[in-house]
Amino acid sequence: MFFKRQHKKESQKTKPQKSLSKDYGENEVVDLPKNIRLTIEGKNNRIVFGEKFSGVLNISIVGDNNLVQIGRECNFKKATISISTNDGKIIIGDNTTCGSNCQFRTKEGRSIRIGKDCMFSSNVHVRTYDGHSILDAKSGERLNSSQDIVIGNHVWIGFNSIVLKGTKIADNCILSAASLVSKEYGEQG
């Protein structure tokens, strides 16, 4: 095991969180833990939080039929989740932590799937798309479509790292600070 979480003593356990239920439009009623800022423009979107979420999180959804799912006992110092598409998914497993200014962004119906027990340092950006289109000069065909991202269980991603479209990171991997990844990375053993 390459990193160990410090668990709170029995006397330091967090108190149950109050949640906010609010109608955000057509077929969108959301139960939110405190310190969640939510903006939705669309319909039939689902946002699901596991028990004992802590931290500060901004969620922005523009589109229909999207899913944001955050596992149990996750802690985000200050993170952003953004879905600008229809049918997009961002799924984050149990016991995942994020330092400040982590961003998870998807477009074009793609997904980001993060396993359990992952650690994201500060300023980590994960996105399924490039910042702009690249077109073939002759045909006008777009050459750089969005791609899914899959991050396995027990992965540690260092400060100022960027995880780009099409990345697959196996279980038990470590990405050093300032990494830029866009391929498939297998488990080391």
- Tally of discrete structural domains: 1
Alpha-carbon Rg, integer: 17 Å
User: What helical percentage do the residues reach?
Assistant: under 10%
Which term fits the overall shape? Answer: globular
CATH class: Mainly Beta
Beta-strand residue fraction: 35-45%
Summing up helix and strand content along with how strands pair, one would put the structural category as mainly beta
CATH level-4 homologous superfamily:
Hexapeptide repeat proteins
Q: Gap between N and C termini, in Å?
A: 12 Å
Low-confidence runs of at least 5 consecutive residues: 1-21
Describe the protein in words:
By secondary structure, this protein is mainly beta. The protein has one domain: Hexapeptide repeat proteins (UDP N-Acetylglucosamine Acyltransferase, domain 1, 3 Solenoid), CATH 2.160.10.10. Helix content is 0%, strand content 43%. It is built from no helices and 19 strands. It has strands spanning 19-23, 29-33, 36-41, 46-49, 54-62, 67-70, 75-84, 89-92, 97-107, 111-114, 119-120, 125-127, 149-151, 156-157, 162-163, 168-169, 174-175, 180-181, 184-185. Strands 3, 5, 7, 9, 11, 12, 14, 15, 17 and 18 form a ten-stranded parallel sheet that branches. It has a seven-stranded parallel sheet with strand order 4-6-8-10-13-16-19, with no helix packed on it. A hairpin with a 5-residue loop joins strand 1 and strand 2. The protein is globular and about 55 Å long.
